[in-house]
Specification:
The structure holds two protein chains of two kinds. In chain A, 14% of the residues are buried. In chain A, 91% of the residues lie in helices and 0% in strands. Chain A has one helix and no strands. Chain A is an all-alpha fold. By secondary structure, chain B is α/β, with parallel strands linked by helices. Chain B folds into two domains: 93 residues; 117 residues, OmpA-like domain (60s Ribosomal Protein L30, Chain: A). Chain B starts with a helix and ends in a 14-residue tail after the last strand. Classes of the chains: A mainly alpha, B alpha/beta. The interface between A and B is medium-sized, with 14 and 23 residues.
């Protein structure tokens, strides 16, 4: 597999992980505001 | 102006991809050059000077998985050592030969010759696989011998088995080389037909470069097919799939 593809996959995985963490944090902050 | 979240997510992914491509354009050539330099010195140290390692993958892009080429006249042990040396270079993934499917990894695997090589040698010591004159068509009479060879090789399924064609020194060397390769290919195909897995069989033709010891290079007895067990590949048996004869 070319190094280019490795980097693209790695970057997209990191992006997806960031999105997931951001979404969890956003949901937690919503709950705190509701309380 | 509010942006729909799905559009923002897709735009972010596209931006990330662009960044990765840009980073690869900058870093891949440098990484590749470093691996090429280290692979070249590893090959020289392993004694395989004519062998080249090409770090080119799909569509000419830089890759971690080099394809080794050249050095056909070197013996299998040296080629194996070179492949392992290249595979051990930091950053290098799997190594492949341009002329076959043999792969090598950085780990040290024991080279354990199995008894099937002796069985095959015993079979071929008494009789030989015959071909039609000047062609790679296997003679009808040799089919039973091939059946026996396939049966003898079956315990070595999971190993890399080299099928090497040899000719006598009559005629042009280039034609002999091609013919010996075609004959080795024919035997390989016949063994695959008989249930030996294709990925473990490697065919090559040496022409008249290695005559039988004690024979003149012109002697017709030099026309032969040799089998050798090159390497033992790691088998990963699962409880329902034990490594045995098919």
């Amino acid at each position: 597999m070319p190094i280019l593809f490795e980097l693209v996959i790695l970057a997209l995985a990191a992006y997806a992980a960031g999105l997931g963490l951001g979404w969890l944090a956003w949901r937690a902050s919503l709950r705190r505001r509701r309380r | 102006m509010p942006v729909r979240p799905s559009i923002a997510v897709v735009a972010g992914a596209a931006l990330t991809t662009c960044l990765a491509v840009l980073a690869a354009q900058v870093s891949a050539p440098a990484l590749r050059a470093a691996m090429e330099r280290q692979a070249a010195s590893a090959i020289a140290r392993a004694g395989g000077a004519p062998i080249r390692a090409e770090f080119t993958g799909l569509a000419g892009l830089s890759s971690r998985n080099p394809v080794l080429s050249g050095g056909e006249q070197l013996d299998d042990a040296t080629r194996e050592r070179v492949a392992r040396a290249v595979a051990r270079v930091p950053g290098v993934g799997g190594v492949r030969w341009a002329d076959g499917s043999i792969r090598a990894t950085g780990g040290t695997l024991p080279l354990a010759p199995l008894h099937c090589q002796e069985d095959v040698n015993a079979l071929l010591g008494a009789r030989t696989i015959r071909f039609k004159e000047g062609s790679s068509a296997i003679d009808r009479g040799s089919r039973t011998l091939l059946d026996e060879v396939a049966a003898a090789l079956r315990p070595c399924v999971g190993s890399v088995i080299a099928v090497t064609g040899h000719t006598d020194a009559r005629g042009s060397e280039a034609a002999n080389r091609v013919l010996s390769r075609q004959r080795a290919d024919a035997v390989r195909a016949a063994l695959i037909e008989r249930g030996i897995p294709a990925e473990g069989l490697r065919a090559r033709g040496l022409g008249s470069a290695q005559p039988v010891e004690g024979l003149l290079p012109e002697d017709p007895a030099n026309r032969r097919i040799e089998f050798s067990v090159v390497a033992t590949m790691p088998l990963k048996p699962s409880p329902v799939d034990t490594p045995s004869a098919r």
